[in-house]
Design a protein that fits this description.
The protein is α/β, with parallel strands linked by helices. Helices cover about 35% and strands about 20% of the residues. It has nine helices and eleven strands. Strands 3-8-7-4-5-6 form a six-stranded mixed sheet. Strands 2-1-9-10-11 form a five-stranded parallel sheet, sandwiched between helices. β9 (about 180), α7 (about 185-195) and β10 form a beta-alpha-beta unit.
Amino acid sequence: MAIKSILISQPKPEGDKSPYYDLRDKYNIKVDFRSFIKVEGVDGKEFRAQKINLPEHTAIILTSKIAADHFFRIAEDARFEVPESMKYFCISEAVAKYLQKFIPYRKRKIFFGQQTIDQLAEVMKKHKNEKYLLPCTDILRDSIPETLTQHKVNFTKVILYRTVAADLSDLENVYYDMLVFFSPGGIESLFKNFPDFKQNNTVIAAYGESTASAVLKNNLRLDVAAPHPKAPSMVGAIELFIKDNLKK
């Protein structure tokens, strides 16, 4: 089938540059963006129920900008003044630089990996004596705590935010040829908003093993999976699918 419209289940990119826009222009396809999930911070009561003692930690593991937002939010709510000696271990340089929003960047001990928890754990090997705090969501990927445990990192997990379904009721009578998902939460949101959803001819694309698994568990047909041997990105995998269908 010809793909004429695609819904990307993520927020619209900032600015005019995006590989999805390049795909749109190259194949004359309608490409829309809509986040299927939203993040809500836990309140003070939920935080206290986890019995986490913030002052006893000497380092923070930040796997996303959202994690940073909610760590500093909870610290402020708990009236915890983050000491200058606190060390920050970030999943990427982008997350590390985001800390400028909260602290004097050049005056703090900040370390970062190259986008994976394995790379960050290698950096943390040089700081074995730290007591780490891992701010996270309620649906944290198992690979993160498992990797930290394998590397014998002394860490405590604290849930500071939750991922919940966004309200998609305005899309009830809108049809797209392809739906693109990036997390199991997106699939959950689809069925929470549209319990009677039938795939029929709709092409479903999923990024990552956990998302692909969620597609299949919900008895949906997985048409496009990324990363792909010939296409490591979702955009590349979508383009492969489009090209294959143009040949038919």
